[in-house]
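Entry type: protein chain
Record version: 2
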Amino acid sequence: MGYFLPHKLVQSFLQMSSGESVADQESASSLELSFLHSLSSLSSDSEESEIYLSKDKKYCWKSHPTQACAGRLPVQNVMRSRPGPTKFATSRITDETTAFSCLFQDCLLKEIVKYSNKYGKEQDPNWEEIIPSELCTFIALIILAGVYKA
């Protein structure tokens, strides 16, 4: 995992890991000290991990991945909606064709057909142009094959 570190923090961290105390560093602010403390607590895992710096000394990597700390999930990561089809989907989907059209709208299919035909003509001058219904059939067969293989 990479960390974005200002050059001053990287030097402070390297000095701290080489045995110098953080208190000796007069230029480090309290924010830098707390940041260095959090980095040193990350590196005090059961496995000894080495720290690698990028050439420009802005990024820092560890040789072993850090363990995720246990605790509560952040609020933005908690799902509040119920799983399954939404009211929007159930009100608009009546059969397989309308379900397919919700996934692949006509404008998207037209773009795929347009650029597929353009690419086909560049590769083979005898290319026969495809139409949107052929593309829909092809996509449906791929989905069906995936359903039966799963």
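Comment: The chain has six helices and three strands.
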